[in-house]
Specification:
metal ion binding; 523 residues; alpha/beta; 16 strands; disordered C terminus; 13-stranded mixed sheet; TIM Barrel; 3-stranded antiparallel sheet
């Protein structure tokens, strides 16, 4: 049911309360800091929306008919395509992989024709054709024809392709890593939950080998830790330090506070629930203050940069117009001398720059000569940078000027080469789903029925979207096993690189102590 909810402050934190006529009241932590909530809320902005929607409606009935609909407020910033729901791991907190023996289990792997049709749908999006694709699963590298899938995406005009993976096949099979890179995969969205075997049993031993394969193939990496309170939230600083040691290929760490799926009591939710501000506070503590709470901005804070580029070019441009509570980020740069991180806001007046971009965008829209206005913007950029505090070897004003003048995807990419992006993305679940956030979502799924569906509808309401749609284009596990001549469980990773005979952790994520403790708590 769709319920009215109250979002309110109590004891310095933000909560959501709603009352179901059948099940009673449900209260959930929504945002761990009211001060940060107020700061982030100043960047609230509507996006361009879907000018060529697949679902035409006169009155919004969100979230009943996603597709995108004509009331959605953001275009696709990142599109996801599930290429398989098979996985070689069985992580206890994962919300999506096929489990043999469960009622309603199905095997979903879209055909090449379906992949091509989905790509055409994404590229038909207006006013901004979808241009960034994430291949996801399951584990995409289990498909023998994954290089063919990537080539189809490139043929249909998608410039940037990243693969959401656990990295095990990259570690075990460097030749496969080379093949997907040559096919057109730009970077790995690499699962990485901690720096110890206890917090990251899924690929602790394999990560160094996967990174080595990426170095040899020129594949960049984004670390993606799923953050679970009481499980791995004490290692966020360690994850950042590990990324720092590998900054030659690791260009970002994107923390994802866990989405609590399934039926879970309030006590269990409170044990595992962590929000964006909670993670940011732990990072400040665990980095010794190198990255502080004040260094972070919400994702839509970059909208003024889009606005000034759009005004200058007179063409719609890629924008990140998600809800301010969905995500946050900052850039940090390593000082060449001290080897310490210097976050962008420490040496640049970010707020001043954003106000400059917004003011000049308005001047151009009002009829002022756009060339003179942009030259004025570029000249003024250096005044917002404290060169005494700017890390050695970095010219921030020049980088910004390059983005403004070239207005290209490659120009934006220069940021990642020079620094490390730290991000947060908190996907919703049934306990904290907020339709105001959903209507601004820009992380979408393309589906074989040729719809484009926001992440937090697709996965939070699988009964309406993920499972309902994919079952139509699937076969049973038994049919798949008969066709392929193998058993589903034969594809599970047996921990061939893992150390220590008799060590429970060496048996993999499904048999780790962490998994047993979590399973007991959920029973």
């Amino acid at each position: 049911m769709i319920l009215d909810a109250e979002v309110f402050e109590r004891d310095g934190r933000v909560f959501m309360s709603k009352t179901c006529p059948t099940h009673g009241e449900c209260e959930e932590l929504y945002f761990g800091s009211y001060e940060m909530y107020k700061k982030f809320s100043t960047y609230w902005a509507d996006g361009k929306g879907a000018h060529a929607p697949n679902v035409m409606i006169e009155k919004c009935s969100c979230p009943n008919n996603c597709g995108l609909c004509s009331n959605h407020l953001s275009h696709s910033g990142l599109a996801n395509m599930i290429v398989t729901n098979r996985c070689d791991l069985t992580c206890w907190y994962c919300f999506f992989y096929v489990k043999k023996g469960l009622e309603g289990a199905y095997m979903y792997e879209p055909s090449h024709d379906q992949v091509r049709a989905m790509m055409k749908t994404l590229r038909s999006e207006r006013p901004i054709p979808g241009n960034s694709m994430q291949i996801t699963g399951g584990e995409p590298m289990l498909r023998d024809d994954i290089t063919d899938v990537i080539k189809i995406m490139k043929q249909e005009g998608v410039e940037h392709i990243q693969m959401n993976t656990n990295g095990i096949r990259h570690a075990m099979d460097p030749e496969a890593a080379r093949e997907v890179r040559l096919a057109g995969c730009n970077n790995l969205y690499l699962s990485f939950d901690g720096v110890t075997a206890r917090t990251n049993p899924k690929n602790h031993w394999e990560i160094p080998y996967a990174l080595d394969s990426c170095r040899k193939t020129g594949t960049t990496v984004v670390f993606v830790p799923t953050v679970i309170k009481s499980i791995n939230d004490h290692e966020l600083g360690g994850i950042i330090r590990y990324a720092q040691k590998n900054m030659d290929i690791v260009h970002a760490v994107n923390f994802q506070p866990v989405s609590l799926t399934g039926r879970m009591g309030k006590t269990e939710r409170e044990k595992y629930r962590i929000t964006i501000p909670d993670c940011i506070q732990r990072i400040e503590e665990q980095t010794g203050g190198e990255v502080t709470v004040d260094d972070w901005f919400p994702v839509p804070s970059c909208m003024p940069l889009t606005n000034v580029i759009e005004a200058f070019s007179s063409k719609p441009k890629y924008e990140l117009s998600i809800h301010f509570a969905c995500g946050a980020g900052t850039y940090v740069f390593e000082d060449a001398e001290t080897k310490k991180f210097v976050p962008l806001p420490r040496f640049a007046d970010i707020q001043g720059m954003l106000e400059l971009f917004e003011d000049k965008a308005e001047e151009i829209r009002s009829g002022k000569n756009k060339y003179f206005t942009m030259l004025e913007v570029v000249r003024k950029l250096s005044s917002f940078v404290d060169k005494k505090k700017q890390p050695a070897g970095l010219d921030l004003a020049k980088m910004f000027g390059n983005i403004l003048m070239k207005r290209s995807f490659d120009a934006v990419g220069s940021w990642h080469v020079k620094g490390l992006f730290l991000g947060m993305m908190h996907f919703q679940d049934k306990y904290n789903e907020d339709l105001e956030r959903l209507q601004r979502c820009d992380i979408h799924y393309v589906t074989p029925d040729l719809r484009i569906i926001p992440f937090c509808a697709f996965n939070v309401i699988p009964e309406w979207y993920r499972d309902r749609i994919q079952k139509k284009y699937s076969i049973t596990v038994e049919e798949w096993e008969q066709r392929e001549g193998v058993k589903l469980e034969d594809g599970l990773y047996r921990g061939l690189m893992r150390r220590g005979k008799g060590d429970e952790l060496a048996a993999g994520c499904a048999k780790s102590q962490m998994m047993h403790e979590a399973s007991q708590a959920l029973q």
